[in-house]
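Could you help me review a protein record that somebody else here produced? This is what I was given.
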Amino acid sequence: MTRKEAIAAEPCPVARSVDLIGDRWSLLIVRDAFDGMRRYSDFQRNLGVARNILADRLRRLVEADILAAQPNAKGGAYQEYVLTERGQRLFAVVVALRQWGEGELFAPGEAHSDLVEKKTGKPLRRMAPVGESGNLLAPADTEVRKLPR
């Protein structure tokens, strides 16, 4: 069984997701795409990633239908990379990682970038899992129902 087949047979949604977007560069490319970047050279300049790695991650993200490569809107020779609908649905994942990092990886008062709602200029509310009744759930309130082996 190839690696791709093994991942496709994996019954855990977390494992499949991490295989697709779980490496540093893929997530940072998606983050930058949410910030409006579209050109290969802009991703490369902002991330400082080696060109071969960037080309590989962009190719994978396009193959996974997270980004779409399309002709430059201004008619230039280069192509642009834009988030697909599937890629747009990663927004909650990026926000959750950002909020976790803000709370766990910065000292109190330490400066960091902020994600705010354009309309109000206010920070987003903290994301948290909620149950059917709207109550906040802790890890102990949930369980994974694994497939029988």
Q: What stands out?
A: The mean pLDDT is 93. The chain is about 45% helix and 5% strand.
